[in-house]
Amino acid sequence: MKKTIAIILTVLFSLTILTGCKADDPGITPKRPYSMSEGYEEEYKDFSSVIHWVKNGDLEIFGRIFRPSDFDENKQYPVLIMSHGYNATGADATNSLVKNIVAHDMLCYTFDFCGGSVLSKSDGEFEDMTVLTEISDLTAIIDDFKNIDFVDSSKIALFGSSFGGLVTSVTAGRTHEDIAAVILQAPAITVSNDLVDPYEEFDNFDKKFIVLWGTADESIERSVVTDLFDYFGEDRMTLYIIEDAPHSFQPRDYEKCMDDINAYLIEMGIMAE
User: Fold this and answer.
1) Which residues pair with 55 in a beta bridge?
2) Closest C-alpha to 53, from 121, 7, 103
3) Would you place residue 109 in the very low, low, confident or very high pLDDT band (cuts 50, 70, 90)?
4) What DSSP character marks residue 154?
5) Are strands 77-83 and 47-51 parallel, antiparallel or unpaired?
6) 36-91, pLDDT tens digit by residue?
7) Phi and psi for 8 in degrees, rounded to 5?
8) How far apart are CA 244 and CA 266, in angstroms?
9) Residue 3 pLDDT > 70
């Protein structure tokens, strides 16, 4: 009888310990779903993707490497790293630019900034996100990709839209020796900023870059991109005005400028002709 009571007490004690260890307790890291685990692969019609997390200090950045259907890990590929806008998330497999990049035998990495959105899959809280934390994230990603065997570290290109365009411009200036090309889409870039001076920072990137802006943009005024052009000049910057394109480009908007994007990447030695 005493043995039976002892067993019951042991079971009850174990259940108490287990039920006390909830996912939101301090020090307990919730388990990620299998579909978000490192190396998880998904197949699409003409390409594939693999989950790739990047560490930035104590935080981890969720992202996906989109790859050509004939991807060979023993080869080296150019890569385009895409930075999303404010309170958004990384582009997925339906994005026209993603599909275009992998169709030209390149890699495309899309990711969620830490705290970059209320829907971000990366670590961090939305209220803690600043331009400096996002610059830190993008820098960590660039450093990570420089050391991936199947990435051609001499052919790393950056793409940034809206707030991600601001982050991309500053990061490109700070890591200019590692970046071969920059594409900005409706960048939220201004001459003065409380935390950074994007013009002064981006000026360190001495290669050519291109800017895309739509005439139906409801967030970024034309003067923002024309001022940028006036500052850097036609020798360093090419501005493409996309008729009727809103702030967030749709597939039809990318179609209007995809040839220009590809021509630029070819000129910069990133994309094969």
Assistant:
1) 60
2) 121
3) very high
4) E
5) unpaired
6) 999 999 999 999 999 999 999 999 999 999 999 999 999 999 999 999 999 999 99
7) -60, -45
8) 27
9) no
